[in-house]
Amino acid sequence: MGSERLRVERIKKLRQLIEALDGYRVGRYTDLSRVERLVEELNLKLPHGWSAIRGDIEGILELPRRSPLYPRLSKAESIASILSKVNLALLALAVFSYMLAHTLLFMVLVISSLVMVNVVYFLRTYVNLKISAIYASNLDELEALGIRIRDSVEYLIRQLKRELRAMSFKLEDFRLKLWVPDYGGIRIVKKPSMFSSRYEVSLA
Fold first, then answer.
1. Phi and psi (nearest 5°) for 64?
2. Sequence-ordered alpha helix ranges (H) in the chain
3. Contact, 179 vs 23, CB < 8 A?
4. Is residue 154 a contact partner of residue 203, using CB atoms and an 8 Å limit?
5. Nearest of 12, 34, 1 to residue 163 by alpha carbon
6. What is the spatial distance between Cα 101 and Cα 96, in angstroms, rounded to a whole number?
7. Is 187 helix (H, G, I), strand (E, B) or coil?
C-alpha cells in the first residue's frame, strides 16, 4: 500500500514538472526553486543539464524585462496583488458585519469588494495581454530558448507513460494541461476556451 502511494505521488510530481516546464515556453511563471526541487526528487536524467535548462528559462523570463513597458506592468501587477489582499480583508469585515446584523455596512463592503475584484481582474488581464504581446514580438528568440525545454518535456512524457504502464493505468485516461501541444505521444482532447487558456491532452 505504501509503495502504491509513493508511485501515485511520483506521477503527480511528473505531471507538475511537465506542466511547469511547458508553461515556461510561453512565459508562464512557476517558482523555479519548486521546479528544481521536483527535478531533484524525481531523480531523472534529463536530456540536457538542469543548469542549461534553467538558463533558458531565465532567458525567457527576462524577455519582458527588456521592454520599456515593463516598469509600468510590474507596478500594475504589484497594485493588483495589494488590492487582492485588501479585498480579502473587506470580505472578512463583511462577514463580521453580517454576523453583527449591520446590514448597511455589510452591503457597502460587499459592493466595494465586487468593485475591487473587477479592478484586479482588469489590471491582471491588461498585464497578461501586454506580456503576451512582448513575447509575440520576440517569437524567434522565445522559440530558440524553448528548444531544450521542449526536449525535456518530451522525455518526461515518455517517462510518465512508462511509469503509468507499470501501474496498469490506461494512458488515454490520463490528462495533462499544456500551453503548447507540440510534443510527441499526446492527443488533444480539448482546445483552449473562455474557461481555460490551455489545451487538455491525453497520452497516446
1. -65, -30
2. 2-24, 32-42, 50-62, 70-99, 103-137, 139-145, 147-166
3. yes
4. no
5. 12
6. 9
7. strand
Q: Residue holding cell 463583511?
A: 94
Q: Is 163:119 a contact under the CB 8 Å cutoff?
A: no
> What is the gyration radius of the CA atoms in the chain, in angstroms?
21
pTM: 0.79
- What phi, psi does 188 have (nearest 5°)? -70, 125
* 108 burial via Cβ count (<10 Å: 0-12, 13-18, 19+): middle
For 139-185, the pLDDT digits (tens) are 899 999 999 999 999 999 999 999 999 998 998 899 999 999 999 99
Mean pLDDT of 82-111: 91
Mean pLDDT for the chain? 91
Residue extents of the structural domains in the chain: 2-66+140-203, 70-138
Cα 50 to Cα 36, 39, 55, 158: the distances in Å are: 8, 8, 8, 18
